[in-house]
Amino acid sequence: MISLVKPDIRYRTQYIEMIEEWKSFGEKPQPWVLQADYSDFENLVFKLEQISQGFNIPKGFVPCSTFWAYDNWTNKIVGAVNIRHYLTEALEKTWGHIGYGVRPSERRKGYATQILRLALNECRHLNIKKVLLCCYKHNIASAKTILKNGGVLENEVEEEATGKLIQRYWISL
Questions:
Q1: pTM of the prediction?
Q2: Facing residues of 99 across strands?
Q3: Which pLDDT value is given to residue 36?
């Protein structure tokens, strides 16, 4: 069983192991927040806490809460989730409230479904009544995860930069 934990310096080793694993698979870590520079780990944790509280938000971003999916049995961070507290017009069009990812060696074990379920509980605490989730149409695993958590497909839109189709799902809480 996993739990969502707030970024903390005590998870430094597990975090770096996860990021390095993603890189060794030739993938960009997901969600986007995992692509941040972690060379000054304490500063990274501090910045993530500041952003979750609405301070020092980079231009074009919104306040968001980041959690790491921690498996207490294996002492391993198996993934992460980023929850946007509200949506801009651009986020509503293509990216939604929640971004999540599971490290490559831990995929196909049900972690994504658990991470999203726990993230939806966090959305309730943020008083988000209707949650938008988006994924590329070709990402069938993500679509299945969203559907397992009650997602209802609203439509598909074309991503301007790539021309890829993005599916937009809503979950009412």
A1: 0.94
A2: 82
A3: 92
Q: Which residues fall within 8 angstroms of residue 24, CB to CB, at 6 or more apart?
A: none
Nearest of 38, 37, 28, 34 to residue 104 by alpha carbon: 28
**pLDDT computed for residue 173 by the predictor:** 96
DSSP letter at 8? -
Dihedral pair phi/psi, residue 73, rounded to 5°: -70, -40
Tell me which residue of 14, 13, 12, 34 sits closest to 23, measured CA to CA: 34
What is the per-residue pLDDT for 60? 83
d(CA 29, CA 17): 12
Q: Which stretches of the chain are assigned E, i.e. beta strand? A: 2-5, 64-71, 76-84, 98-102, 130-136, 152-158, 165-172
Say what percent of the chain tops pLDDT 90. 92
CA-closest candidate to residue 95, choices 173, 4, 171, 167: 167
Burial profile 47-73: b = 16 or more Cβ within 10 angstroms, e = fewer = bbbebbeeeeeeeeeebbbbbbbbbee
Among residues 129, 171, 128, the alpha carbon closest in space to that of 153 is found at 171
pLDDT < 70 regions, the chain: none
Q: What is the pLDDT of residue 130?
A: 98
Q: Are 96 and 59 in contact (CB under 8 A)?
A: no
